[in-house]
Design a protein that fits this description.
Its EC number is 2.3.2.13. This protein is mainly beta. The protein contains 12 helices and 41 strands.
């Protein structure tokens, strides 16, 4: 150096980490948030002379350029053209203190910071170091600003959470380890951006767009699935996962992201919707975008975007695949919080993002961000993919019988089935919060009807008066009869399927069908019962039971039919999952047919987790897990797995060699917490004989 001889640079790690809320990152990098000043100290070898001029240069990306905001040149005590600035602070002799401020709309990513010294006509430049710049929900001028501190703690800093699954009438909690602060995870999140199709096509333009959370979140929604860009997770919805991991066996994002990164970006097999959502939540939180995981029960997948889901069955009650429309028991996506400069301030706030590869958007499997305000108001023409999300929570559900002579009978139309109990984890607790009102007005209200008609009009779909819709484009041949279909006749009987007791893996399932004659006419009801093992998408995997009964009903008589699904009937079909769809097609000579359906989810057997002592940072503590073989047969080859951010640096695996019929077993292992605060420990018993048995416990870890 001519004027400055620098011995070393102190990046004031403790001071900056505390101020920028980045102390939790397990990284040696300097991690900062935009729109907020950070401090650095230059320790000098010699006394500072006068007559020199200091200029800072911050740059990011492969081709830094001031015109694209990827390079900022700013003089001391002057704000640069890009909004960066530096001021000198009081200091001890032999050192110089500076505060450097990035603008609230700075590009996020990995930066180099250089100092240029000009003395006379001589210029010297030195690299002061590198830092990572993130979005800043604490900065009021940042697009991702979130005013409530408790919400920032939850949606940015909480590294574990709950993903809701199951059925609308049987909602289950599943623990998930987001682990956004674990070692390598921020590096992996930045690598995800650099591996994107946008970056490969034009690296400079891609980096220049990384100031915008709309852009960044949409890129991540495409990269978390592997369909177009060799992204992180490969989806599979079948019962064969032998070439990878059953999606039900994942308990967190860290293992998945590390496997992708360490495996040279080979997609990780396999994921389903909650896996994609969990991984995307990790990536977006690590980059500083407030994000949560949301579950929609009875979620419509409307392939032809006509706001109607058509289900076809044959005369035995078997589902026919005439259409690619479907209704999933639940679907999991994400919401991220930021403003929408592209749409206007009315659409600021929570934005839906969905990394599950269902439909292409602008040629790529990506979805969102779609403003929840746009969805609620029926503004289905707005970017991005608001029509797809609107259908997921608002479509009609129409059931048809298809007869052997190709005649179709519309037997049921339900305008309220889709989009129930839209759920997310509460701020600060593991309880469920219902956010359905963020997506739609109350079902059947005048406002809801008005919004629905508005959406139909914007989509180019017209109504036939009974909320039956027809696209202007030519429909599939399978639905060709639908425009002229008469409204369904009312059945002369009613029915309901119920469980005798909560069903448990390894035990028989006892059900009963209650039929009621709705008028004074004597009638004979032909009942065709069917039970199928299904995925959560309601796609059948295997037939379990099929039987027929003939029931005589007197005037307004009620009868109960009991039947049983034995363990031996379902055990080979439910090794990967625990879901059964039971249907009863009831036909009479008078009146319309009646279809009664019930989703059955087998409950987890007994599993408890006990922490045997106080949890303190850097002190070992024992954990005891007790579980029971639910089967009346010997099982072998089980594995107990445990993970939890701040508790275990890598997933723990313990072999459970043999379990006798109905035997309870106890496994004890040791954890050494390395972070304080409330921590989540997840435990998963994996066995080829039955589906996973999972549990979790929350620990309050004291500082060392």
């Amino acid at each position: 150096f001519l004027a400055l001889k620098i011995a070393n640079v102190n990046w004031q790690s403790n001071l900056n980490q505390a101020a920028h809320h980045t102390a939790d990152y397990s990284s040696t990098d300097t991690i900062l948030r935009r729109g907020q000043a950070f401090s650095i100290t230059l320790n000098l070898r010699t006394t500072v002379r006068s007559g020199y001029h200091l200029t800072f240069v911050a740059s990011t990306g492969p081709s830094p350029d001031e015109s694209q905001q990827t390079k900022a040149v700013f003089n001391l005590s002057e704000e640069g053209a890009t909004g960066w600035s530096a001021t000198q602070e009081p200091s001890e002799p032999g050192c110089m203190n500076f505060k450097i401020l990035s603008p609230a709309n700075a590009i996020i990513g990995r930066y180099k910071l250089k100092l240029q010294t000009v003395s006379g006509n001589k210029v010297s430049s030195t690299l002061l170091g590198q830092f990572v710049l993130l979005f800043n929900p604490w900065c009021p001028s940042d697009d991702v600003y979130m005013a409530n501190e408790e919400e920032r703690q939850e949606y940015v800093l909480n590294d574990s959470g709950i993903i809701f699954q199951g059925l609308e009438k049987y909602i289950q909690q599943e623990a998930w380890n987001y682990g956004q602060f674990e070692e390598d995870i921020l590096d992996i999140s930045l690598a995800i951006l650099d591996r994107s199709l946008n970056h490969r096509q034009d690296p400079a333009a891609d980096v220049a767009n990384r100031s915008d959370p709309v852009y960044v979140s949409r890129v991540v929604s495409a990269m978390v699935n592997s369909n177009d860009e060799k992204g992180v997770v490969e989806g599979r919805w079948s019962e064969t996962y032998c070439s990878g991991t059953n999606p039900l066996q994942w308990s967190g994002s860290v293992t998945i992201l590390r496997q992708w990164y360490r495996g040279r970006y080979k997609p990780v097999r396999y994921g389903q919707c909650w896996v994609f959502a969990g991984v995307m939540c990790t990536v977006l939180r690590s980059l500083g975008i407030p994000t949560r995981v949301v579950t929609n029960f009875n979620s419509a997948h409307d392939r032809n975007v006509n706001l109607s889901i058509d289900k076809y069955i044959d005369t035995s009650g078997k589902t026919l695949h005439f259409t690619e429309d479907s209704v999933w028991n639940f679907h999991v996506w994400n919401e991220s919080w930021f403003i929408r400069r592209d749409l206007g301030s009315f659409y600021d706030g929570w934005q839906v993002l969905d990394a599950t590869p269902q439909e292409r958007s602008k040629g790529i499997y990506q979805c969102g961000p779609a403003s929840t305000r746009a969805i609620k108001e029926g503004d289905v023409n707005l970017d991005y993919d608001s029509s797809f999300v609107f259908a997921a929570v608002n479509a009609d559900y129409v059931t048809w019988i298809h007869y052997s002579n190709k005649r179709r009978e519309r037997i049921y139309s339900d305008t309220k089935k889709i989009g129930k109990f839209i759920s997310t984890k509460a701020v600060g607790t593991n309880s469920r919060v219902d956010i359905t009102a963020n997506y739609k007005y109350p079902e059947g209200s005048l406002k809801e009807r008005k919004v629905y008609k508005k959406a139909l009009k914007l989509l180019g779909v017209r109504s036939t008066g009974k909320r039956t819709k027809i696209r202007r484009r030519r429909r599939r041949p399978s639905a060709a009869r639908r425009p002229n279909a008469m409204p369904p006749a009312r059945p002369s009987i009613s029915g309901k399927l119920s469980l005798d007791a909560p069903p448990v893996i390894g035990q028989d399932i006892c059900l009963f069908l209650v039929l009621r004659n709705l008028n004074a006419d004597f009638k004979t009801v032909k009942v065709k019962l069917r039970a199928s093992a299904v995925l959560y998408t309601r796609k059948p995997k295997a037939e379990i039971l099929q039987l027929s009964r003939s029931i005589k009903l007197g005037a307004e008589e009620v009868k109960e039919i009991s039947f049983k699904i034995s363990h031996c009937q379902y055990k080979n079909s439910l090794r990967d999952d625990r879901k059964i769809l039971v249907t009863a097609l009831c036909e009479t000579k008078q009146g319309a047919s009646l279809l009664v359906e019930k989703d059955v989810v087998l409950q987890d057997p007994f599993l408890t987790i006990k922490v045997l002592g106080a949890a303190v940072v850097h002190e070992a503590v024992d954990v005891q897990v007790t579980f029971t073989n639910p089967l009346s047969e010997v099982v072998t080859g089980c594995v107990l797995r445990a993970e939890g951010s701040g508790l275990l640096r890598e997933q723990l695996r313990i072999d459970v060699a043999r379990m006798a019929p109905m035997e309870s077993s106890t496994v004890q292992f040791e954890i050494t917490p390395y972070k304080s605060g409330t921590r989540q420990l997840q435990v998963d018993l994996v066995c080829a004989h039955f589906s996973d048995i999972k549990g979790f416990v929350m620990l309050d870890v004291a500082p060392a």
